[in-house]
Amino acid sequence: MRILHILDHGLPLQSGYTFRTRAILKAQEARGWTVAAVTGQRHGSAAAAVESVDGLTFHRTPATRRSGPLGEIAGIRAFARRIEAAVDAFRPDILHAHSPVLDALAGLIVARRRKLPLVYEIRAFWEDAAVGNGTGAEGSLAYRTTRALETWAVGRADGVAVICEGLRDDLIARGIDGGKIMVSPNGVDLTLFGAVPPRDDALATTLGLDGKDVVGFIGSFYDYEGLDDLIAAMPALAAARPDARLLLVGGGPMADALA
After folding, report:
1. Which residues of 10-35 are buried (b: 16+ CB within 10 A; e: fewer)?
2. CB count in 10 Å sphere of residue 73
3. Does the pTM exceed 0.90?
4. Which of 51, 69, 68, 52 is nearest to 60 (CA)?
C-alpha cells in the first residue's frame, strides 16, 4: 500500500498538526505501508522541492501570497498541480487529505483525474476554530461558505476520518453516511518521552496536592477546547470529591479570562 498524504503544513514546522501527522505516517510505515506527503503553500518556503525530514519524504508547494476568493481558487489549482506531480513521482494507491477543506478540494481534483480513492481526515471544523480563536464570526459569509465546502467535500470523499464522535455526529446530522466515517482520536506515543520519571513527592507537597485527586489540562486555551465545561463541572466534582483539584496550563485568548 502506497499512501500520499496531502497536508496544510508539515515537519520541520512544530505544531499539534505536524505532530499528529508524523504519528500517522510513522504508524503506517510500521504496518509495512509506504508513505509520502505533499505540503501546501501555507507551509512556507522550503530548502528544496522534495525534502526528507525525520525519515519522511515531503514534496513542497512553492509559497505564494494569495488573498480573497479568487486567490483561494488559484491556490487550490496550484496545489492540485503539485499534488499531481507528486503522484507522478510517488505512484500512490490512495490519497489521504488532511484538513482544512482546501486540501480536500485540491485532492479531489487529482483523485478524479487519476482515478484514485481519497480519504479526507478532519481534525477540526476550521470555521468553528476561527470563531474560537477570534479570527471569524459564526454565521458570517466566510463561515457559511467554509461549512458548505466541507459538507460538499465530505460527501465526495471515499472515506472520512475525524478525531472525535462530536465531529462524526455533526457530519451525520448534515446527511453524510455514517458508514464511511471513522473516528481516529488523538493520542500520545509515550515511547517518544523515554522512561516515566518517579513521582516528585516534594513538588506535590509544595503544590498542596498530597492525597488529592487532580484533573489536569495542558494545551491552548481556546473556546473549542471545552475548558468552560470543565470549569463548570468542578462544583459538582468538588461536592462529590472534596479533595479534587483542577490544574490548567496553557495560553490563548481564554487565558486571561480564566486567570
Report:
1. bbeeeeebbebbbebbeebeeeeeeb
2. 13
3. no
4. 51
